[in-house]
Amino acid sequence: MASGVANRAYLLGPDLVLRVPRTEAFVADLVKEAAVIPVARAAGVRTPALVTFDDSRTDADVPYMVLERVPGADLADLAGLDGIGAGAGDVFREVGRELARLHALTPDVVGELTGVPVEYDPDARAPHRLIDGLLGDGMLDAEAARWLRGWFDRLAERIPGALPRVLVHGDIAPQNLLVSPVAGPGRGRLALTGIVDWGDAMWADPAVEFAKTPLWGVPAMLDGYREGGGGDGGGRDAPYAWEARVLRHHLGWALARLRDPAPVPGERHWTAPPASRLLGILRFFASSPPEPWPALA
Length: 297
What we know:
Elements: E1 7-12, E2 16-21, H1 27-42, E3 50-54, E4 64-68, E5 73-74, H2 86-102, H3 107-110, H4 126-137, H5 142-157, E6 166-168, E7 177-181, E8 190-195, E9 202-204, H6 218-227, H7 241-258, H8 276-286
Antiparallel strand pairs: 1-2, 2-4, 3-4, 5-7, 6-9, 7-8
Helix pairs in contact: 2-6, 4-5, 4-7, 7-8
């Protein structure tokens, strides 16, 4: 099957999928998945059931996992996401509802999970140090650096000081979203059938969950998230705090990629090309995004 960076995947007949780490370095991620998947399913998240996890190394020189196969293809396999029109928006809205279920899980609710790390509070000065480094490297001019510092400062004003820590998938990207066409009227309609690959799961600010989705898909995902009971908790957060938190991640990660601009040919992840995030942000704000996004630019 189409495989990811960490694991090779194989069909075992029509109903099962075998996943095997590519190297010893990825074994810890598979161990983590074995702990997280049953908890996510118990919360009602649509993800394939874990059938077997064998870390005895008697059948192979690394642990392996067998999962139930769910129908559909991953969203990244559909040629030209623009070409599927509203179908992608429908999927992202469904994903948002699933994430609202997942993010109800905290360490107090489910206890510790094997191998799941904690992402500590982000350093508020980190974007400024990143910008200073890019300026010193000659990747930015002084005026662009000044403008970017101001943008991060304006976003920080909208972000509450204390951020929650919940269980996050950590890699909500098109290649990890399985979808199927919806029968009936309406061309290009798609339905979410499963969320896969939990190797990046962690305890983190839930806003980080929206940072590996192309920014143009985030408004629909946040709409579904709020419909499912996630988001601003009925207005308790500062106005636009969620959008500001998500945009801060996208912008920071886009600039960080400039410090390591080596291309990665053949990678399926949309962020593999060095300029993809920056172009994604440009494209999003140039396409008349819905409120409140223009107020954050």
